[in-house]
Write a structure and sequence with these properties.
Elements (H helix, E strand, L loop, with lengths): L8 H13 L2 E2 L1 H29 L5 H31 L6 E2 L6 H18 L5 H33 L1
Antiparallel strand pairs: 1-2
Helix pairs in contact: 2-5, 3-5
Length: 162
């Protein structure tokens, strides 16, 4: 036996009110938000790591930076690009408008929360900041490099729509 939901005029009116306040955007905005978020977090991590190197007046800062760039290229190529491609594969087929927060999956929000917690633990750990700066340069630069793919796809989407 089928269960049928009958909409009353009151429930229809409520659905319309909810639809008016729902923060819905098109896929171009989702692509921009994803790219901007990755770029912004990457920039923040780079500034933090460079401030540590400057504050501690580390001799051989160039070596720490060079290792960080090497880590960034590996993380970007073998890790983050797969995530970006997966997100693009989810966002690009979208039609109409979607919730502004759907530029990431709910699982990604959990991963972000775990990464924030891990970053906080690392910053307050006894690990010397110059060593952490190498990790932060690696992850930060990898995020920035990966954000370029979002922004490149966004530009192609804007070109298609015109």
């Amino acid at each position: 036996m089928l269960n049928m939901v009958v909409k009353t005029p009151k429930s229809i009116a409520m659905d319309r009110k909810v639809a008016k306040i729902k923060p819905a955007v098109n896929k171009e905005v989702l692509l921009f938000l994803a790219g901007f978020m990755w770029f912004g977090v990457g920039t923040m991590l780079l500034f933090l790591s460079f401030s540590w190197l400057k504050a501690f007046q580390v001799h051989g800062s160039f070596l720490y930076c060079a290792i960080g760039v090497g880590v960034a290229l590996l993380v970007h190529h073998f890790g983050f690009l797969k995530i970006v491609d997966k997100n693009l594969g989810r966002i690009l087929p979208m039609e109409g408008t979607r919730c502004v927060f759907s530029f990431m999956t709910w699982k990604s929000y959990i991963i972000v929360a775990v990464m924030i917690a891990m970053g906080t633990l690392l910053r307050h750990s006894p690990i010397p900041k110059p060593y952490l700066s190498t990790l932060y340069i690696g992850i930060g630069l990898a995020l920035i490099l990966s954000s370029v793919r979002y922004l490149r796809v966004l530009m192609s989407q804007i070109g298609k729509s015109q």
